[in-house]
Specification:
Helix content is 55%, strand content 0%. The chain has 4 helices and no strands. The radius of gyration is 17 Å and the shape is globular. It starts with 17 loop residues before the first helix and ends in a 6-residue tail after the last helix.
């Protein structure tokens, strides 16, 4: 007998690229050790400050500097992390609405 699982309309987390994900996890671990876990959520003016940080990391990469001198992770990993913070902050309510969770 074959089992049935109706998951065709579920999000495919298995499609996330594991190497890029490991780089982002490294940046997050570095930040958690330097500041505190989840500290980024408490940064005032989060949207504009992380957008500016993402651009700084992208520009450093464009200028030929592959690695952030302090963390030793790539500037692109830092930029992706910053953009993920912005997406997370912008999407708090929309994610809850998407899956039918309460928003308050």
């Amino acid at each position: 007998m074959d089992g049935v699982k109706y998951d065709g309309d579920k999000l495919r987390y298995d499609l996330l690229p594991p190497i890029a994900l490991a780089h982002v996890a490294g940046v997050l671990t570095f930040g958690a050790q330097k500041y505190a876990p989840e500290n980024w959520r408490c940064v005032p003016d989060l949207q504009s400050r992380y957008m500016a940080a993402a651009f700084r990391h992208i520009e450093a990469h464009r200028m030929g500097e592959k690695y952030d001198p302090e963390s030793k992770y790539t500037h692109l990993a830092h930029a992706v992390t910053c953009l993920m913070f912005i997406i997370e902050d912008q999407g708090k309510d929309s994610y809850a609405n998407l899956f039918g969770f309460p928003t308050d």
